[in-house]
Amino acid sequence: MIMRRTFTRLAHTFRKSPKTTTVEEAIKVIQSGNNVFVQGMAATPTYLTTKMTEYGMKEKLDNINVYHMHTEGHCPYVEQEASKRFHCKTFFVSQNVRDAINDGRAEYLPTFMSDIPNLFRKNVIPLDVALVQASPPDAYGFCSLGTSVESSLSAIEKAKHVICQINKHVPRTGGDAIVHVSAMDQLVYHNAPLYTSKPKDPSPEDVEIGRLIATHLVKDGATIQLGIGNIPNMVLEQLTGHKNLGIHSEMFSDGVIPLIRSGVVNNTAKTLNAGKIVVSFLVGTQNLFDFVNENPIVEMRDVAYTNDPHIIRQHKDMTAINSAIEVDITGQVCSDSIGTRIYSGFGGQLDFIRGAGLADGGKAIIALHSRTSKGEPRIVPSIHDGGGIVTTRAHVNYVVTEYGIASLIGKTINERTTELIKIAHPDDRSMLSKSAMRRKLIQ
Asked: Shortest CA distance to 91 belongs to which of 107, 117, 78, 110?
């Protein structure tokens, strides 16, 4: 049985007797003008959000604000007609809301991931209803939020009304994922597989970037943070010769599992939470969900903890690896937009880049292909008009492309420019050099 280690806050707050009911009855609690939170990632409760949208349209509710991080699957409340009654306000722009954001049917709320729970806890965004899903309660009444704690714990704490979908497919994970059934108001039993994600086949560029990072930037005994995607997976694949690595991250995926089973990732050298993989949410295949089920080495934590730079910096040799849309020749990093078109979000990038940069022996790394799939430069003279700077030129230690590693630590803008041009695509270097010379950044 998984240890229940962080339930005390909720245990002293809630002593409800939740009602088991149908989704049609449960959703009637939502009224015009409400603020509704929706759990995200693999645990997105699409069953609940679909019924919420149908009810809102039928009853002609108005001005319902829906808040969430990254969600998966169909998002019914951003469709053309529904968006007249529901206002999606998302902290991260996932594929299912991207068109709605850029068409004006939904809104992007830029926030450091570590700050999102406090927006709810401090009532900056007061919540009326939270829609979440959890595992069935055990003999003592404890459920698990499974794959997605993120900001859901804070929503459960602060929402006036919590509707929980009880789903047998939700794995039982520990730490902050453990929530007593008395924290809920209504229970809706409905089983549905969680959303899974499988990476695409890696490109030669992915493999080379992974090799450069694994070989030159990750030390034995390091604690690492990795996102999802081909570059993080290629880093992981090439860490098989390392020793005593640890994981402290907002998330992890399937690529970590072989390293755990081989003993490469054993978390013994971690400064905090030694012996534990500490994350806030999980994205991957059913194999990952099976692996974390009742697994005591995986500790799920509130994202206000996992992404707190003051927590992150306490890990010796903390190595944070994040991606970008483009980087200019002075080291500014655009990660949430392509020009004026919002593409993703702040996520946890700056939380970890700053925390790693402050850590003893830490490394803050931005990794990206030198060019887009359409052949356009990603090391650029300046960020495209309207593009957002997520990570400043002062935060980044290293930028990595398939052509090498640019070390920006202690470098002037002129020196950074030289370093970054070296790792740009060879066919872009002349253009970048001419631009830099016009600006007197190089001779």
From this structure: 110
Comparing CA positions, the residue from 120, 89, 111, 94 lying closest to residue 42 is: 94
Residues 99 and 181 in one domain: yes
Q: CATH number of the domain at 331, please.
A: 3.40.1080.20
Q: Are residues 254 and 359 in the same domain?
A: yes
- The candidate with the shortest Cα–Cα distance to 327, out of 374, 373, 372, 375, is 372
24 counts as catalytic = no
Mean pLDDT confidence for 199-214: 94
DSSP 27: G
* pLDDT higher than threshold 50 for residue 174: yes
pLDDT level of residue 14 (50, 70, 90 thresholds):
low
pLDDT tens, 119-160? Answer: 999 999 999 999 999 999 999 999 999 999 999 999 999 999
User: What kind and span of H or E run contains 10?
Assistant: helix 8-11
The parent domain of residue 53 ranges over 8-189
Q: Percentage of residues in the chain with pLDDT exceeding 70?
A: 97
String of b and e for 318-348 (b: at least 16 CB within 10 Å)?
A: bbbbbbbbbbbbbbbbbbbbbeeebbbbbbb
Number of independent structural domains in the chain: 2
**Of 72, 157, 205, 250, which is the active-site residue?**
250
232, 84: one domain: no
CB 308 within 8 A of CB 359: no
Cα(247)–Cα(285) distance, rounded to whole angstroms?
Answer: 19
Helix (H, G, I), strand (E, B) or coil at 324: coil
Measured between alpha carbons, how far is 64 from 61 in angstroms, rounded to an integer? 7
- Across residues 91-96, what is the average pLDDT? 94
Q: What separation in angstroms does the CA of 361 have from each of 44, 209, 224, 320, 391?
A: 37, 21, 12, 12, 20
